[in-house]
Amino acid sequence: MVKICCIGAGYVGGPTMAVIALKCPDIEVVVVDISSPRIAGWNSERLPIYEPGLDDVVKQCRGRNLSFSTEVHRHVGDADIVFVSVNTPTKTCGLGAGKAADLTYWESAARMIADVSVSDKIVVEKSTVPVKTAEAIEKILAHNGRGFSYQILSNPEFLAEGTAIRDLLSPDRVLIGGRRDTAAGSAAVDLLAGVYARWVPQDRIITTNLWSAELSKLAANAFLAQRISSVNAVSALCEATGADITEVAHSVGKDARIGHRFLSASVGFGGSCFQKDILNLVYICECYGLPEVASYWREVIRINDYQKSRFVNRVVSSMFNTVAGKKVAVLGFAFKKDTGDTRETPAIDVCKGLLGDKAVVSIYDPQVTGEQVARDLAMNKFDWDHPRHLQPLEQLSATDLEKQVAVAADAYEAAKDAHAVCILTEWDEFRGLDYRRMFEGMQKPAFVFDGRNVVDVAKLREIGFVVYSIGKPLDDWLKDMPAVA
């Protein structure tokens, strides 16, 4: 019987281990974390993260062959396979600040594994890490391993939040990188591949060398983000020319070489991976003397930042060039629908832009708490990717923030007496709202700024709204307004 332990009970570690436990009932799976509140959440009826289908999977396995614990050293020491799914934040100071990945938590995990091990182990990179991280981990374990043997594998996750359980149950591919040139390395790859083979077809399990696996994850996220920035760049041109981005994207996506995925224009991409991984890729390219390649990928981030600032500028300029003292309802704070994850959500930058112009912001999201909103709006860039107990709590007492920001119980409460509504997450419920009822409770003229293209623009204009929708032909009201405040 194989025992698996995962260090890190977050968005990756928790769901991944739950599905492994579901599909491999003879394998003991333990998820460990130093955060007592997080582990308590995993052992409760209300899990610490929202993901469709996750609750059912955890309830089926918890207490059988799946457990969650703060006894990190004991369970890591007993395990045969140790997955490491810890934070890899972007550095905020020192060499590579603003681009390079901070591997402090990874290094600490590796040293801890060496300290507590009582047997040989397979150590699996599950966090997204820079190329050649495995080599550094090998050196740490080799110098501190007390005679035990360690095989390092790279097994990056390719999950999309909102569909993570579906992605785990039926993945496009499972990628495992290892030292296939050695007998021990090859055996380790085969052992982990055998775990996934319990439910994943063999032709979807890909094995590569370590460096290819590490780079594949960064490249995959860079390619996806690039598509979003590409369609968002075209959306700006659509507004300038009167073209419709929905029609353009549909026509482009009909080309079988391109396809329709990730061609929805929006206020910008978010989530824990895209920006961080591209910045990491930029830094790696610079370190290897590839400035032109680094510059190419940096532009993907610049277009994303431009799209968010362009949205804020459109809001302010359309409302007589000021939102000072005006209530603005923000519908959606998570970075995408069907998740409560707010990491790098475009809503943070949009709200900060509005608050910077002295707007009064009322926020509604069905899965994001008021506490999380407050933390996100008070934090500096990149601080979100550190464990909660290491985040700068002293910033959270900002009285100005408390005066300017409210969290509403529903969309209608958020919009009551508001001058404008900004839709920043594509939650399905926002498509079916009674916008006539909303209009009647708002200040006039009443604006809707749709950053996700979820509303029927024509119907809202019939009701009386002034409507701006990303990449769509402009409302007559907006045609005479400057695009930049």
Automatic annotation (TrEMBL):
<feature type="binding site">
    <location>
        <position position="343"/>
    </location>
    <ligand>
        <name>NAD(+)</name>
    </ligand>
</feature>
<feature type="active site" description="Nucleophile">
    <location>
        <position position="273"/>
    </location>
</feature>
<feature type="binding site">
    <location>
        <begin position="127"/>
        <end position="128"/>
    </location>
    <ligand>
        <name>NAD(+)</name>
    </ligand>
</feature>
<protein>
    <recommendedName>
        <fullName>UDP-glucose 6-dehydrogenase</fullName>
        <ecNumber>1.1.1.22</ecNumber>
    </recommendedName>
</protein>
<keyword id="KW-0520">NAD</keyword>
<keyword id="KW-0560">Oxidoreductase</keyword>
<feature type="binding site">
    <location>
        <position position="161"/>
    </location>
    <ligand>
        <name>NAD(+)</name>
    </ligand>
</feature>
<comment type="pathway">
    <text>Nucleotide-sugar biosynthesis; UDP-alpha-D-glucuronate biosynthesis; UDP-alpha-D-glucuronate from UDP-alpha-D-glucose: step 1/1.</text>
</comment>
<dbReference type="InterPro" id="IPR028356">
    <property type="entry name" value="UDPglc_DH_euk"/>
</dbReference>
<dbReference type="Pfam" id="PF03721">
    <property type="entry name" value="UDPG_MGDP_dh_N"/>
</dbReference>
<dbReference type="InterPro" id="IPR014026">
    <property type="entry name" value="UDP-Glc/GDP-Man_DH_dimer"/>
</dbReference>
<feature type="binding site">
    <location>
        <position position="33"/>
    </location>
    <ligand>
        <name>NAD(+)</name>
    </ligand>
</feature>
<feature type="binding site">
    <location>
        <begin position="8"/>
        <end position="13"/>
    </location>
    <ligand>
        <name>NAD(+)</name>
    </ligand>
</feature>
<feature type="domain" description="UDP-glucose/GDP-mannose dehydrogenase C-terminal">
    <location>
        <begin position="329"/>
        <end position="457"/>
    </location>
</feature>
<feature type="binding site">
    <location>
        <position position="38"/>
    </location>
    <ligand>
        <name>NAD(+)</name>
    </ligand>
</feature>
<dbReference type="GO" id="GO:0006065">
    <property type="term" value="P:UDP-glucuronate biosynthetic process"/>
</dbReference>
<dbReference type="GO" id="GO:0003979">
    <property type="term" value="F:UDP-glucose 6-dehydrogenase activity"/>
</dbReference>
<dbReference type="InterPro" id="IPR008927">
    <property type="entry name" value="6-PGluconate_DH-like_C_sf"/>
</dbReference>
<dbReference type="InterPro" id="IPR014027">
    <property type="entry name" value="UDP-Glc/GDP-Man_DH_C"/>
</dbReference>
<dbReference type="InterPro" id="IPR036291">
    <property type="entry name" value="NAD(P)-bd_dom_sf"/>
</dbReference>
<dbReference type="Pfam" id="PF03720">
    <property type="entry name" value="UDPG_MGDP_dh_C"/>
</dbReference>
<feature type="binding site">
    <location>
        <begin position="86"/>
        <end position="90"/>
    </location>
    <ligand>
        <name>NAD(+)</name>
    </ligand>
</feature>
<comment type="function">
    <text>Involved in the biosynthesis of UDP-glucuronic acid (UDP-GlcA), providing nucleotide sugars for cell-wall polymers.</text>
</comment>
<feature type="binding site">
    <location>
        <begin position="273"/>
        <end position="276"/>
    </location>
    <ligand>
        <name>NAD(+)</name>
    </ligand>
</feature>
<dbReference type="InterPro" id="IPR017476">
    <property type="entry name" value="UDP-Glc/GDP-Man"/>
</dbReference>
<dbReference type="InterPro" id="IPR001732">
    <property type="entry name" value="UDP-Glc/GDP-Man_DH_N"/>
</dbReference>
<dbReference type="Pfam" id="PF00984">
    <property type="entry name" value="UDPG_MGDP_dh"/>
</dbReference>
<dbReference type="InterPro" id="IPR036220">
    <property type="entry name" value="UDP-Glc/GDP-Man_DH_C_sf"/>
</dbReference>
<comment type="similarity">
    <text>Belongs to the UDP-glucose/GDP-mannose dehydrogenase family.</text>
</comment>
